[in-house]
Every structure is written in structure tokens, then in C-alpha cells.
Design a protein that fits this description.
Radius of gyration: 22 Å
Number of strands: 11
Strand content: 15-25%
Order of helices and strands: HHHEHEHHEEEHHHHHHEEHHEEHEEH
Strand order of the largest sheet: 6-7-8-9-11-10
Structural class: alpha/beta
Helix content: 25-40%
Shape: globular
Largest sheet: 6 strands, mixed
Distance between the termini: 53 Å
Number of helices: 16
């Protein structure tokens, strides 16, 4: 637990930074808030000089976006003389509407959406080919998405809370902490250690605290995600946050923040199946077979915030949309993870396995492997289930995509089958 207030932390800045082997840096007093920094970064990216880019993972959820924005801000003020640092929202600008919790929070803390850089604003392959990509910093993931893997050699730093896949250059600086509920907790710790005066920026503290709350189900230990660090950093950020009744709208008051974010995240009433599949999506290439017969399987996992039964029931074209998404992403298998609150306000999880390669029974083979690895799956009836697709109630609500993805890696490494 934190034992000191922000004032004591600032007074001990010299000792704290030294103890972690990092020199404290003076803050640029002209850069008063995160918003000020983002406006400058947006202008910098158009220059023709080298830049360092900080980027979250391809799902571009709240934790990933907040981590990228706030860590880039920290690097920008603690690296004088280095190339400018630009945070990148790892999605097209048009996809922000698919993440209403992210959009709502940014607007609430007065971050201007037009000041943000999206993938179409910063063309990373072009920067790399022109020799202008000074470095790529990964937050909230440690392996680039398949369509970005050509940028791997440019990775200079990783700050993450997922299982280390070691798919980055050997000389990259890494801070990977597992378990940890939220990458924003790691960012908050870095800020506290290296430049705690940044915590006076209320937009930064509210963004980080919001992401921690969302990734840990409001620090609910029963969900199995929250660690001591998450609790410590949330308490620190809450302590340093300004009086919300004066500084910001009433919707950011402490007792309403989490409920407002949850309401926004689960408001998917306007989304069709196609948007549901791509809203919160991650993809990997996984290898199987011996060295002589290796196959590469493209695996996608879509997390949808609703009962899959309802999603299938309201859209007779559900299977067709899955096939379209798989074709666009060149998938061999798609896992759809449902997460929702039932009528009695109980949190529920589900898993649908949709194969596009492999022999008959392949989806059941995947499910059997997951069960053997401790994933409790109960067969559930689902009307109009497409051929070869399997559907289960996932009774351990603590197991999210973060836990399932490493098991899928193990599956492809250890199980023998043909890709056909």
C-alpha cells in the first residue's frame, strides 16, 4: 500500500528516482496538461524529422489508449533533446465510435479528439522506410499484431502486463509485470517514480484511474485480476485527483466514475454483428507441428459485451458476418468471447469457437484442450448454430481473453492435426 501522500512523494523525488536507476527530470512548464502535450504532438507528427511513437495494442480498448497517451506524455517530458514523442491510437479514427467508453472519457477530461493521432495520421511503415521512426514503444502488449510485424525491428521499449511472448528485439528495454490488472497501473508507477509533478494534471490522473478501475472491475479481488499494485496506484491517483465538483463535470465524481464507464462500454445497442466482432478484437499467428511440418494458424479472438445467444438470435446473418470478418482478416479460427450481466445482475461469460480450417471436430478438439487446461466449459444449446461451430457457457468469469490466448498458443504447439 502507498504510505505517503503526493507531497511526500514529490519531496522524495530525488531518492525515489535514484533508487530505480533513473534520473529525475524537470518538467517543461510550458506544457501544463496532457491536453497541451497532445496538441503539440499532433503538430509534431507532420514534421519531417525523426519521431518516437508510443502505441497500444490493436484492440484499442480503454487501458491501451490511456497507457499510450499517458506514457508518451511522460517520455516527452523526461527525454529532453530526444526525438519528439507521438502517441498513436492503434485504430482508424472512424473506429473510435465503436469504443464509447473511450470516447466519453476523453471528452469528459477535455481531451480534444481532433488532437489525437490515429493509424491513418501516422503511417508507421512510411516512417520506417524513410528512416524517421526513431523508435516504437509498445504499451499493453509485447508482440505486434500480424499486420504490423514488419515494424518489430523498430521496437525499443515494452511496458506490458501480458504473458511475455518475447517477440521484440533483444536489446529493447522491457517492463513486463504478470500478474497485474491494468497496464495503466504500470504507467502510473513510472510517472510516480520519474516525474510525479505530472500528477498535477487532472486529465492524466483521471484517465489512468479510469483505466485501472475498468481493467480490474473496480478493484474487485473476487474477479481475480486486481493486484496490490493496482490498488496502490488507484489510491494514489484518487488522492491526487482534483475536486471533481470544481474541475470537471459531476459525472466524474468518484462514486459515479466506474458506473458511467461501464454503462458506456456495454452500450452496444446501435452495433450490428460486424461491428461487434471488430469492436474489441485481437489477432495472432500461431505455429504448430514439428520443425519439418510447421503450419502457421491465424487466430482471432473477439470479445463482445453481450449474450451470444441474443447476438445470434437477433441477426439471422450472424454466421455470414463471421465468415466475412474471417475472410477480411484471413483467419483460420475465430473465438468469440461473450461477457455480459444477466437479468439478475450476475456477470456471465461464454465461448464460441468458429473454425475456418481444420478437419471436422476441430472446434471440439480446441474446447477439450481448454477444458484440460482448467477452463470450465459447459455445453449450451444455441439455435441455428452453424456447422462445425461449438458454443459453451464459460463458468469461470475470471478467465478473460488475457488468459485464453496463451492457452491457444499451447494448443497449437502441442496438439497434432492437419490444416486443411
Amino acid at each position: 500500500r502507498l504510505k505517503h501522500t503526493i507531497k511526500s512523494k514529490i519531496k522524495k523525488n530525488q531518492n525515489t528516482a535514484a533508487s530505480f536507476g533513473k534520473e529525475p527530470q524537470a518538467r517543461d512548464t510550458a506544457m501544463n496538461t496532457l491536453g497541451d502535450y497532445l496538441r503539440g504532438a499532433r503538430a509534431v507528427k507532420a514534421d519531417e524529422g525523426p519521431v518516437t511513437v508510443v502505441m497500444g495494442n490493436e484492440s484499442a480498448d480503454l487501458d491501451s489508449c490511456v497507457s499510450a497517451l499517458c506514457y508518451a506524455y511522460l517520455l516527452s517530458v523526461t527525454s529532453p533533446g530526444a526525438p519528439p514523442v507521438v502517441p498513436l491510437m492503434n485504430m482508424p479514427r472512424s473506429d473510435l465510435s465503436l469504443r464509447p467508453d473511450v470516447e466519453w472519457l476523453l471528452r469528459e477530461v477535455k481531451v480534444q479528439i481532433e488532437d489525437l493521432c490515429f493509424v491513418e495520421d501516422v503511417e508507421l511503415p512510411v516512417l520506417k522506410n524513410e528512416g524517421r521512426l526513431a523508435g516504437l514503444v509498445l504499451v499493453d502488449h509485447n508482440r505486434l499484431a500480424a499486420h504490423q510485424e514488419d515494424l518489430t525491428s523498430s521496437v525499443v521499449e515494452v511496458l506490458d502486463h501480458h504473458v511475455d511472448e518475447k517477440m521484440y528485439p533483444g536489446d529493447a528495454q522491457t517492463t513486463i509485470q504478470v500478474p497485474c490488472g491494468s497496464c495503466s497501473s504500470l504507467v502510473a508507477r513510472e510517472i510516480l517514480q520519474r516525474s510525479p509533478d505530472l500528477l498535477a494534471s487532472h486529465d492524466l490522473t483521471q484517465l489512468l484511474r479510469s483505466a485501472i478501475l475498468m481493467d480490474t472491475s473496480a478493484l474487485d479481488r473476487a474477479q481475480g485480476r486486481t493486484t496490490d499494485l493496482d490498488e496502490e496506484m488507484e489510491a494514489m491517483l484518487r488522492e491526487h485527483a482534483p475536486d471533481t465538483s470544481k474541475a470537471q463535470s459531476q459525472s466524474l465524481e468518484e462514486d459515479l466514475l466506474y458506473s458511467h464507464l461501464m454503462k458506456k462500454r456495454y452500450d452496444i445497442s446501435s452495433l450490428g454483428t460486424y461491428d461487434l466482432l471488430r469492436k474489441d478484437y485481437k489477432q495472432w499467428t500461431m505455429e504448430t507441428g514439428s520443425d519439418e511440418t510447421k503450419d502457421a494458424w491465424v487466430v482471432g479472438i473477439s470479445a463482445i459485451a453481450m449474450d451470444i445467444n441474443l447476438a445470434v438470435g437477433k441477426d439471422p446473418e450472424f454466421a455470414r458476418w463471421c465468415a466475412r470478418w474471417a475472410k477480411e482478416r484471413q483467419l483460420d479460427i475465430l473465438l468469440i468471447m461473450g461477457a455480459y450481466f444477466d437479468n439478475e445482475e450476475n456477470f456471465r461469460r461464454q465461448l464460441m469457437i468458429v473454425p475456418f480450417a481444420g478437419q471436422d471436430g476441430f472446434a471440439s478438439q480446441v474446447a477439450d484442450f481448454l477444458k484440460a487446461k482448467g477452463v470450465p466449459l459447459e455445453t449450451s444449446d444455441l439455435q441455428n448454430l452453424p456447422p462445425r461451430v461449438v458454443f459453451y457457457e464459460h463458468t469461470n468469469v475470471k478467465q478473460s481473453r488475457k488468459q485464453i490466448q496463451p492457452l491457444m498458443v499451447d494448443f497449437f504447439r502441442t496438439v497434432s492435426f492437419n490444416k486443411c
